[in-house]
Fold CoA ester lyase.
Amino acid sequence: MTRTHPRSWLFIPADSEKKLMKAPETGAHAIIVDLEDSVAFAAKAGARRTARDWLEAHKRQITTRKQARWVRINAVETGLWRDDLAAIMAGAPDGIMLPKAEGPEQIRLVAAEIYEHEQRNGLPNGHVRILPLVSETARAALTITSYVEASMPRLAGLTWGAEDLSAAIGASRKRDAAGQWTDTFRFIRAQTLLAAHARDVWAIDTLHADFRDEEGCRRAAEAARGDGFTGMLAIHPVQVPIINAAFAPTEAELAEAEAIVAAFAANPGAGTLQLDGRMIDQPHLKQARALLGIEAAPVRPL
Ligand code: COA
Ligand code: MG
């Protein structure tokens, strides 16, 4: 089955040439070169140059779509983001991740600036997409549904993060004693998922911060896929194969999807059938066809 959208999204700090060199061998479907929280203020200018050089060096991958190249710029409120874009847009990134996004107006502000740089750099209008982090302040987290209706043609997906918000609200824990997200984060995670699907864009689950905990990352990635996310963020190369594996359909899922499609093909005109004693109807058929790549998955392809 061909992959139509990135599953694993690996952050790499833009001030680390060494880590950037490793990007291709990590197997990440998308790299997010980070100019924001993983780069100290004094290192921003150098990081912008390193990011641009890396984007340039990997430009030819645009045609093969092997590894998408994204950049996380600094938040609108910092005032750094315009210089970030000015430095990196010559490298023709596939998209821009916008942290601490506070709603559609900020997306449109950044989109307008991106448009200017596309013109200047000879890129097709709309080439560079936008992926906002929608949950990083309390106010932002309460307005996630505002992304559903607003006009934002560059919007590629929605993703969320727990770190900044927990600092913003003074939460000393993000998970409960059983290891589940606390209410605040479950609320945000569900809204991100639903708003993304309501808009027909990617829904990308947040990262598993403890990168030494491979078992926890596997559980998180399986939960992400099981809940309907289309991909997941990563911070360490060890997490990438775990995420890729969790999002790949299993043999059993493929076999079941084939059986569902075959059952409806054998009963043309039937709206509902049974398969091994279970009812199957049109939503099952739709999901089976999507899994087998017979029809587009319910999100926009890359
Ligand atoms: N991308 C590419 N390579 C990475 C990497 C990443 N995100 N994180 C680690 N590596 C490399 C390291 O350079 C190291 O390479 P080496 O074996 O040749 O020395 C190897 O993987 C093992 O790394 P490890 O020693 O386990 O971790 P570390 O102490 O070097 O790095 C972090 C730990 C958290 C600093 C690092 O994983 C990182 O920078 N992650 C991304 C942080 C980020 O972008 N945050 C913003 C989003 S929240
Ligand atoms: Mg942050």
Notes: The mean pLDDT is 93.
